[in-house]
């Protein structure tokens, strides 16, 4: 009986000691060590279990029960301490990272097409409906295509119409207009009819100001076939401008001069800002100059591979940044390539 009482007291002491030790456990490592000491294979409780079989039969159940109780209790406390440590670690993490989940998220900047591209796409859409297909041509051109084949020989005074960027390589220039693309297209399609819109960047060696840039987009229209008349030119251009700016817009044609068209003209549009009364946008004239055009010159048709006795055509060229400016009330062309996101994100 003594032995039994003793062992029960020993078990109680073991439990008490283990529980006291648990108070100073503050980390996962501490807890691991505690578990090894108080519940491990060579711990005191486990020693008691090993001794039970050598005890008096009558004592065994009581002792076994008590030892089990102690072990279960310690295991329960181990589990609770484990939770306490995890909670503390989490709280500490949150405090250190100072994560404020109530802060609003950062809005990513949304990309968009450049306003110049948007305008070009709108133009392609309208012209596609009118039967024109996009044709692309090179920006680095030869003097031959940019001038000579367009009926502008070397030293011809008309060359002054285009201030040219030359390169170090003889005869290689940046195109000053999209018109050389007319020749490329004609070479590709002759003697079949063509009806194309030719877009792209052109370059001019100019003094920059609010209405002059050294690079800008142009589109060229070219239609070549049998029996194409000045009436077709006029009807097509007026319809295009109406689809672009609205059916109420008024246009007029003025005689003009280009070496590669004959006759040549320029088209004006009634100022959309003042409706013809005269304002800053139209320099008080009530009209806005928007494009150059004309019937393709017989020499140019011949240079393109068409017989001018059988074929005729019309061509037109316009700067599309100017169109963007009119449609959106932009007053300085330099905005287009200045890459100021505040300007660009408006469109
Ligand atoms: N290429 C001319 C320019 O840039 C415009 C134009 C094109 C005129 C086609 C007539 C016909 O000034």
Note down, in words, how this protein is organized.
The chain is α+β, with helices and mostly antiparallel strands and 347 residues long. The protein folds into two domains: 2-96; 115-344, 2-Layer Sandwich (BirA Bifunctional Protein, domain 2). It is 42% helix and 18% strand. It has eleven helices and nine strands. The protein has a seven-stranded mixed sheet with strand order 1-4-5-9-8-7-6. Helix 2 (28-39) packs antiparallel against helix 4 (60-97) and helix 7 packs across helix 9. The radius of gyration is 45 Å and the shape is rod-shaped. The N and C termini lie far apart (97 Å). Phenylalanine (PHE) binds next to strand 8 and strand 9.
* Bound ligands: phenylalanine
N/C terminus separation: 97 Å
Instruction: Work out the helix count.
Output: 11
Total strands: 9
Structural class: alpha+beta
Quickly name the level 1 CATH class of the largest domain: Alpha Beta
CATH hierarchy: architecture of the largest domain:
2-Layer Sandwich
Q: How many separate domains make up the residues?
A: 2
